[in-house]
Design brief:
6% helix, single chain, 48 strands, mainly beta
Amino acid sequence: MQAASKGKKTPVTLLALSIGLALQAQVLTAVAQDAAPAAYVAPAPREDAQTLDTMVVTGYRASLERAVDIKRGEAGVVDAIVAEDIADFPDLNLAESLQRIPGVSITREGGEGRNISVRGLGPQFTRVRINGIEGLATGGGTDTSGGVNRARNFDFNTFASELFTQLVVRKTSAAEIEEGSLGATVDLRTARPFDYDGFTMAVGGQMGYNTLAEEYDPRGTFLVSNTFADGHAGALLSIAYTDRTVVEEGSDSVRWWTAQNSTTNFFDQDSPFQAALDPDVYHPRIPRYNSYRHEQERLGITGALQFKLGERTELVFDGLYARFDANRWQDNINAVSFSRTNASGKQETVVRDGEIDSRGNLVYGVFDNVDIRSEGRYDEQSTEFTQLTAALEHGFSDSVQMNVLLGMSQSEYDNPIQTTVIVDKFNVDGYSWDYRGNDRLPVFDYGDLDPTDPTGWTLAEIRLRPQYVENTFDTATMDLSWAASPYFTLKGGVNWKSYEYKSREWGRGTPGSGRVEGVAGISIDDATLASLMREYNIRAGNAGRAVVPDVQAFAALMGIHGNAGPYAVHTDLTNTIANNRAIQEESLGFFLQGDFNFDIGAIPVRGNVGVRRVDTELTSIGWVDINTPGQVVHKYTDTLPSFNLVAELTPDLLLRVAGAEVMTRPNLGFLGIGTSFSVAGGARTVTTGNPRVEPFRAKTFDLGLEWYFGDGGLVSVGAFYKDIDSYIQTSRESRPFNTSGLPASLLLPEWGVTPDDEFVFQQPLNTPGGELTGFEIGYQQPFTFLPGIWSDFGVQLNYTYVDSEIQYLSSSGAPSAKGPMVGLSNNAWNATLYYDNDRFSARVSAAYRDEYMNLVPGREGTDMEGAAATTTVDASLSYNINENFSVSLEGLNLTDEWSDLWLDSERNMPIAYTHTGRQYMVGFRYKF
């Protein structure tokens, strides 16, 4: 299967061809014409469910004003972000934009936003719709950031933000909104031709520079739109392209673990520093510095054909294509002995000296007989996303309307090359680590080994681990509404959705046996091996220079990507079989909802009340064991009532009340049907799936007060409560394999382990859940009440507090500890100060997120794993030279914030501590 990536061409669909033909003649004519002068006003989007009638001004202030109007007009608790101008979104990344919304926090990959959490609920609890239908874009990441996305998390970094005109985050539910979210439903909308008056064209470009990568990154956008037949037909095409290089550097421990246990994990018992042999002492498993180089190329294309077929009928065809290519190099030199629990690893390592801190961490140590490892890894990755939709709105009369939506979306993640070449030097004396001066950026000394010397290494492993993930949605929806009176509208509808997930993983080895990553039968002489090493440099922590295997040089000389001989890869291996599976999920939902609008005394009241019923049939297809395929079918039904109420206490003071029963379907990783084994050095895991695990279910209640004042002014306060009836936890327990009841014959000889060795046993369990409570405060205001230049300033502020207490279970299912939900930050805030007028615009924004947990319980016998708090600062300037041409300057991550992943709440041991540098962008935009 494995081969070098040659790249795929962008598909030319019938929709794109039709748009091109429709636009071609008008574009040529428009360029040739000498247009009359016009006021400095952007083409105005037309009204739809969430936009204004006209765009009276452009810029950041106008974007905020339109977002406030969307929020005000909705029955539920909603926040929005709107494009500042044609193909010009407030941030370069969708996730970065979404974090400006109260209650939204993000996680980053390669220096940019990847996933979002809403009100403390992680990415798996947020459902994303693009132009009305659900989609799931998945990609890959570094191992410490989660690796390949085999979950329901939406990877926002797949898309360029310029492709979209509007983001709407729905924090409360309604019967007419599809099920699947405990956190929020995020609606993304691309541009359509009726958004603009007649012919519109815009082009933009930027050049970026990253201070750590020290490379220049181009970025370009283009949009052309036109209407025909006296405004009854239109076509639009937009394109966005980015070429980006990011370097990520920092320290890594691959977790910490006990210095000694009673089985195989212990130092040389005659070590002079005997304190290191205490089981309560922890040390890093694989101490190292990592250097990642990400080379990313992102292409996005949207197209739309829009027809007004009559006074009450409109037909729209939308298409979206996105391709995100991300090649990544990972270089490190490490002390691998400390993770090897065998006679030639940790057991022969001598602890000559050391220091243990008050938390029981071996923060300083000098060692003999240490094996040093140099690893070079290279990944070729691509995510290709395609979506096609057709939407029909038809009014049978002034009071009866039908909406039909048909669509499909497909996301394919392909990682055809994931190759690691490893070389070792054995029994190095005088190796040391020192975490005393900085427990995140330690000092390493390699003793009598020169890390820059390419000679004397031994080829140890060649890892080939190609991956593939596909997610496909097919959707059909039909709704009917009847305006029975000016005060009441009855709605009903049906929604059918078919979702399919496919996952594949390959590896070296003999089919039916375990994955092989050793080099038996592969010969290479010392001189040739030395010639295939290259030097790299890490500035973080003054780690300095070292040599590492050059994966591409190995591939060119030895044909390791040829899928032949010792480099042939297979799916049917004991280590890979768990990821060779499929999930088929078919759901049929019905809803009935009443929208009301009446007065109670002098107070206007509006909102909706309804119920949604959905039947889900899940089929999990995979392998019970290496020789036995199987499938499990699980059916469940949910009845989900909801209501949203808005009372206008005064024309500008709104009281909101909402309640609902909601559900989120289980993460895909929980739904495997068999037991899988993973053995890599000292990391040994047994994972059991559970396709019959029940969904996350909760009852929710919201109460809010909003005061609207002036042009775009808003003060909002909202409280929310979620009673989570059913939660899903991954239970983890470390114990010897021979205590599990599994036969020892499952341990393959090539793994080099015994039944006495400790394994981490993990499985998903339904838990009783718990409560989540919190509140949001928002304030935004343009300072139009101030004199002179000060009237062009404005501010946007929000703060969110969330707390939860979830009942966690032990591996036996018995209640163990109570604690906060995974992924939940107690405190988060965002602040933006801006200046905006017809000519000049500037803003500076800061976003803070508290620390949060990633795993409960943690690995290596710890209580949890988490991520430290972060604060990021961005700024931008733009100047309109004339009514058509503008220039801009932007700075991202101006404080060069570090990502800090840790292990254990008491010991606070570092897992990974990395940064990506500052990013600067200079650009232009021209509107025709």
